[in-house]
Amino acid sequence: MECFESFFPKEGFEFYEYDQLGSYYSDQPKDSSLWTVERFVDEVDQVRKAIGADSRNFYILGNSWGGILGMEYTLKHQDKMKALIVANMVASAPEYGKYAAEVLARQMDPKVLTEIRSIEAKKDFGNPRYMELLLPNFYNEHLCRLPVWPDPVNRSFKHMNSEIYTMMQGPSEFGIGGTLAAWDIKSRLKEIKIPTLMIGAKHDTMDPNAMEEQSKMVQKGQYLYCPNGSHLAMWDDQRVFMTGVIKFINDVDTRKF
Question: Which of 107, 186, 200, 251 might form a disulfide with 211, Cβ 3.0–4.6 angstroms?
Fold first, then answer.
């Protein structure tokens, strides 16, 4: 998320990137009971209170897992928010898995896919060959399409807590298989009353059409499409992404939304 540091200060936006419990510079307890959506939602509220934000000025921008967290927080605390921005995350994990299996997998070389599925069937996720296959054939196509990944992206992977990631998401971005596998709040999107921007990208691991649909399911939604972007569209379709996000924030702030 460090790319926002090159854009938001120029707009006069005060913003915070925080390390969740279990991540990077934060404490990393081993109590697995902590890794629930509900506890992470409470953590967001602790951050909100600490920075003194409320419905006059509090926006949440969440990408991927952050999108899950942003939607869940909004459903519980939207009275404390001004607006929500969800980047590259659908509201249904089963639909995410279906899209990966029925659309993204079919775009892959059949021989490569067969080998990937073979490793997954054996649950041999520690096999170096697994990531050797996923990186060029999936991650470089659907996670970040830049020929050289930015340093902040590489550092985030280096410091990722794989224990929590695997528990909640599963071993890779190629579908979902952890505790979030059945997560689905699509039917509740109609409860979101605050201005909401849904961001989709052509090459994303999430169906961009589903992101557009979600923008119509909330009460005050807009959709931003990144034609050259993937799961990290804030990097590989940066002009479209940042222009759209900044416009949305300014429109909400000036009541033009």
Answer: 200
- Give me the mean pLDDT over the 120-133 stretch: 88
- Determine which one of 64, 92, 215, 230 is catalytic: 64
Question: Which one of 172, 203, 215, 231 is the catalytic residue?
Answer: 231
pLDDT tens-digit map of 66-110: 999 999 999 999 999 999 999 999 999 999 999 999 999 999 999
Question: Catalytic residue among 203, 204, 215, 230, which?
Answer: 204
Is position 92 annotated as part of the catalytic site? no
Cβ–Cβ under 8 Å, residues 176 and 65: no
Q: What are the C-alpha distances in Å from 47 to residues 15, 16, 39?
A: 12, 9, 13
215: annotated active-site residue? no
Q: Does 172 qualify as catalytic in the annotation?
A: no
CATH of 2-94+184-251, one of 1.10.260.40, 3.20.20.70, 3.40.50.1820, 3.40.47.10: 3.40.50.1820
